[in-house]
Write a structure and sequence with these properties.
With about 90 residues, the chain is mainly α. About 70% of the residues lie in helices and about 0% in strands. It contains two helices and no strands.
């Protein structure tokens, strides 16, 4: 029972373990979401740079440049790895 005089009540070890596990799950879910968002962003940017480098998307200094094609491929692969990593991260129980 909590004390009314403002002093901190001691929690049982079971409650402490449960709180620590809950915090760990929240952090893990936040990391998964971060990986997924960054990965999707990388895939999108990589696809745009691939399109510009290949000459499919015009109107830029990057259009038709092999350099941006290669950079786009690398960024898209990194984005794909991040998406897979975020999607496959196990949630601890």
């Amino acid at each position: 029972m909590a004390r009314l005089d403002g002093a901190r009540a001691r929690s049982s070890p079971c409650v402490t373990v449960l709180l620590n596990e809950t915090r760990a799950r929240i952090v893990l879910l936040d990391m998964r979401l971060l990986l997924l968002v960054l990965g999707l962003l990388g895939l999108l940017v990589g696809a745009i740079w691939i399109g510009q480098g290949a000459g499919w998307i015009g109107g830029s200094f990057m259009t038709g440049s092999r350099f941006w094609l290669i950079i786009g491929i690398v960024v898209a692969i990194v984005g794909l790895v991040l998406v897979i990593g975020g999607a496959r991260s196990p949630v601890r129980r």
